[in-house]
Amino acid sequence: MNEFDIIREVFAPLTAEAPGAFDLVDDVALLENQNLVVTKDLLVSGVHFLPKDPLDLVARKLIRANVSDLAAKGAKPLGYFLGCVWSAGVKREALELFAKGLREDQETYRIALYGGDTTAHATKTAPLTLSATFFGIPPKQGLTSRSGASLGDDLYVSGTIGDAGLGLAALRKEFKFTTVDKASLATRYQLPEPRLSLGAALAGLATAAIDVSDGLLADAGHIAKASGLRAAIDAVAIPRSGAAGSWIAAQENRWRALSQLASFGDDYEILFAAPPAMRRSVTVAAKASRTEVTRIGTLTRGAGVGLLDENGAEIPTKLTGYDHFRS
Amino acid sequence: MNEFDIIREVFAPLTAEAPGAFDLVDDVALLENQNLVVTKDLLVSGVHFLPKDPLDLVARKLIRANVSDLAAKGAKPLGYFLGCVWSAGVKREALELFAKGLREDQETYRIALYGGDTTAHATKTAPLTLSATFFGIPPKQGLTSRSGASLGDDLYVSGTIGDAGLGLAALRKEFKFTTVDKASLATRYQLPEPRLSLGAALAGLATAAIDVSDGLLADAGHIAKASGLRAAIDAVAIPRSGAAGSWIAAQENRWRALSQLASFGDDYEILFAAPPAMRRSVTVAAKASRTEVTRIGTLTRGAGVGLLDENGAEIPTKLTGYDHFRS
pLDDT (tens digit, 9 = 90+) per residue, A135-192? Predict the structure, then answer.
């Protein structure tokens, strides 16, 4: 197996829908005349996924993490460029399992591979490192930015929060769950569901949006900072799954547990702001995209993020999202 | 120092020329309506650069390796998306030195940073891994592909071949060189010179082109394979620097040495094909772009690459380019 066989046999078939990819026989690809939204996300073994995670799921998570960024902006994904740095001595079966995952989610999202680079580390212990640059078409209404929220806007989030973080804890055996809960939580960690339909329905309606990847509190902080406001979040309103509910019930301090849940990463839900006058439109958009949406707070004067209890008192939060450079 | 400070303070200033980068406060960038050529190259510590290479030079090599891909296609670079996976515990000074290198070569090539992702490995020993997705404007005459060479076309290469490989050997102390030679060879390895002007001048003239990154023989093989022909290369005609000439003179077997020189990677010269009727035009293009160009062979019937001695007899070549997956 050499590098060129791998490209021709494993990756080139993934470009079938992309004439501009030139079957990966050239060093470049050609994208035809149109406005493009572009995003780039890295996934690193031992940081963003577990070294033992099945490689088809890792491939799909790579696609979904990037698609989620486009979804929050209201964009429609078209294709991607892929960079893989494998550990030395990687086996062909591993590459093929990875490519199988890519193929599955290319079909799910109707996207194609356009190009990239594949190489290997110098050692067997160096971790698999993945990079994807995704591009898509912006919505007619314009991109939903992080920075457009106004004073008094409502804050909403899709789906449920904290499941992916609990799934990671379950896979690491840090907490015990029932078999059913463990399976559903692990799936939330390994195979997120980007909210493409909701993101498209929110274009022109949401004043600001972000996908929740760093954690609900951290990402609310990003919208607040970019918009020059403070995010006030009602802890009890944060939507949670049955499994997360059971976990909270088993914790000593309910407020601390809620704060933890809101600090886990990898939810890939959409957190967005919209004026109170648009509440009915938000409900319509949620229904039209068959996505649960919950109002969880408000944008107020100030800066940062406040997590509030039933009485409006601030809950101490230590965790404000995963920071790869925290020392 | 946290992840968001790094993005805001170290990387956001690099997007000053790119309004579509939104100052890196969003997860996406916007590229305006135009045809784009896109390429992606990875650089991994211990594989594509030495762990002790100064980080400003590593940054510039990352830019130059990608610009070189665009140059060979006749394209004009516009900007890039950057992915960095740092070893755990990286210091701010290291990031700043890296950003300094990016800034220098952004000015050299008049390009801007448009977006990306920055993260860190879980361990201090995991190697710095860099990914860049570059985009540019295709030439009016259309991209110069790998596959357009015709039977009987001449094969040319710019600059001199093998210096970067000797530079790497010098840095690793595998061979001894004079101080002056060592310095010039090391620079060829650490700071390649993409042939942008030549690539632009060859658009519509060269029938096929590639930048020499895998090694002259391997890259000639890529053109040959994509064009359905065989590349016959005159070993003595391969252009070499004074330093490479001294090295060859010190080797026991001159033919073996020439074959090694043609198998080293990282030259970042342009290897291209053109019909014999266009020899004068090639000379004009070389002069106009102030780039040395040497005719080194022909495309013949058959497949693969032949390295020929003065009598046209084939020189045995073991090395046909660096393969990251060779076991």
Answer: 999 999 999 999 999 999 999 999 999 999 999 999 999 988 999 999 999 999 999 9
CB contact under 8 A, A47 and B2: no
The pLDDT confidence band at residue B327, using thresholds 50, 70 and 90, is: very low
| Residue A210 to chain B, least CA–CA distance (Å) | 8
pLDDT in tens, A25-49: 777 888 877 889 999 999 999 999 9
Q: Does domain A3-137 have CATH number 3.30.1330.10?
A: yes
Is B30 close to A36, i.e. CB distance below 8 A?
yes
Q: Which residues pair with A45 in a beta bridge?
A: A49
Q: Which residues fall within 8 angstroms of residue A302, CB to CB, at 6 or more apart?
A: A229, A230
Which H or E run contains B315? none
Q: Which candidate from A31, A115, A143 shows the least CB-CB separation from B35? A: A31
Share of chain A above pLDDT 90, in %: 84
Instruction: Identify the CATH class of A154-308.
Output: alpha beta
Q: What is the ipTM of this complex?
A: 0.89
Q: Which of B227, B253, B47, B100 is CA-nearest to residue B155?
A: B227
* Domain assignments of chain B as residue spans, ordered by start: 3-137, 154-308
Q: List the beta bridge partners of residue A209.
A: A272
Q: What is the per-residue pLDDT across B170-186, written as a single tens digit (0 to 9) for each?
A: 999 998 899 999 999 99
The DSSP string of B260-298 is HHTT-----PEEEEE-GGGHHHHHHHHHHTT--EEEEEE
Q: Supply the Cα-derived Rg of chain B in whole angstroms.
A: 20
| Of A33, A42, A120, Cβ closest to residue B35 | A33
Report strand pairing: A270-274 vs B76-86: unpaired
A87 at interface of B, judged by CB pairs closer than 8 A: no
Sheet holding B154-158, edge to edge: B208-211, B270-274, B154-158, B293-300, B230-234, B304-308
B208 to chain A: closest CA residue = A26
Contact of A85 with chain B, judged by CB distance below 8 Å, is answered with: yes
- Cβ separation A28–B147 shorter than 8 A: no
Exposure of A152 in the CB half-sphere (CA atoms within 13 A): 5
In the structure, what pLDDT confidence band is assigned to residue B322 with cuts at 50, 70 and 90?
Answer: low
A322 labelled ligand-binding: yes
Which of chain B's residues have a Cβ under 8 Å away from the Cβ of A6?
325
Whether residue B310 lies within 8 A of chain A, CB to CB, comes out as no
Minimal Cβ distance to B30: which of A129, A143, A327:
A143
The secondary element (H helix, E strand) that includes residue A39 is strand A29-44
Q: For residue A310, count CB atoms less than 10 angstroms from its CB and return exposed for 0-12, middle for 13-18, buried for 19 or more.
A: exposed
A115: phi then psi, degrees, rounded to nearest 5: 165, -170
Q: What is the DSSP string of A180-208?
A: HHHHHHHHHHHS----HHHHHHHTTT-SE
Encode B148-162: b = buried (16+ Cβ within 10 Å), e = exposed. Answer: bbeeebbbbbbbbbb
The answer to whether A325 contacts B81, with C-beta atoms less than 8 Å apart, is: no
